[in-house]
Amino acid sequence: YEMASCDWSSDVCSSDLALLSEPSAVISCSDVPDSAWYTQPTHALGSLAAAPAEISDFHPEEPLSRAEFARCLSFFSPLRTDAEPFPDVPETHPDAPAILSARAYGWIQGDDNGCFRPEDSVTRAEAVVMLNRALGRTPDQNYIDRTKPAFYRDVTPANWYYYEIIEASVPHTHRTVEGAEQWTACTAPDPPPEGGFYLIDGQLYCYDQEMQDILRNESSELLSFNASGQCTARTPYLNKIARELAAAHEAPRLTRTEMEQLLSASEEPWNLLLVNGTHPLPEHFSVPELAELDNGYKIDSRVLPALQHMLDDTRAAGYQPLVCSAYRTWDKQSSLHQKKIRYYLQQGRSREAAAEAAAFWVARPGTSEHQAGLAADIVDNAYPLLNKSQENRPVQKWLMEHCAEYGFILRYPTEKSALTGVGYEPWHYRYVGTEAAHEIMSRGLCLEEYLCETGMS
What we know:
It contains 17 helices and 14 strands. It is α+β, with helices and mostly antiparallel strands. A hairpin with a 3-residue loop joins strand 6 and strand 7 (223-225).
């Protein structure tokens, strides 16, 4: 349905034409083409001066104010003055008589503060409600609740204008009982959608045929639906997969159960796990299997072959790499983080400032890639210090040039700290797989940028 502001053409002229019988004259505007769907009502309203008469152009796409809409309605009934003026509509306002008359007829009401807000743009919903009142149309809520004759993705029974919009948009017959409509039959403007998932304007929705509405305000282990019906999966990766599945299954569409089954079977790429200050490791995370390097450090067993290959080729090139850190337990990471905090406390910083500064260099427990078993700190054996000078060592120059061939990236480049949340570490290498590594290193990206580009973060 779209709750946009009304335009002169599409939202007023054709609606107000319902108040006319047969227009006696036609006035043309230079910016209303003969082929436009709103041409006839525009010309008819122009003939009654319900549209601005002082200009030759109609400006069909310009927003319409609440005052202008009240003026349009006022042309179809005698003006009345038996109402209290709105406090924000002075007598000098050009549309004050029309607004006062519309209030007297009961077509318009004030807001919570008793104001009319004449210069605000009138929304489609407000225009429908005012027009219904001007026509004496009253929705039959019981009939509408029972039959649900129309579905709009952005209009639900929870909206104050829901029944008014159904009244205006669904052709129906009725009888009048005590001044109110009782519907006797209706014709749905469109057949109900097929049940299942839809990808609309980049957003995912699921229509439930039994409910005759999209799922809203629901959640499960894998999927969540907000009040607008927009669906999100548990992780960015699963979000991406869900959208791909919805686009690939349009006939027939996937049901909620089928979508959740497919997502459950969609294993996230372990090598692209994002771990940083805003993306901590999942609760109860553990490395599936650890493997041990020659010097006793451990790493994810799936990473070890590539890491060993890279180290062997570095040595074959005449250099001496040394792994000085790899997998860390929670306790080990916590100990390193607390040690860094104490360092900054001794410099006179507050605890809060010390903790923030420490996290820039040593990740808080739960936010370190070392705990995921996917990273290794590698230094030059002849210079085993973790400082900026490490970037000038022969080992690092070789690794930075060749690491992508083995599926590794320099995880924390000097110019990406604002994105990674970590200071420059010319020794920290992270395994992501050769395809991602080549893309990241060749384009000078960080992992956060790559995952964002590929829709996985």
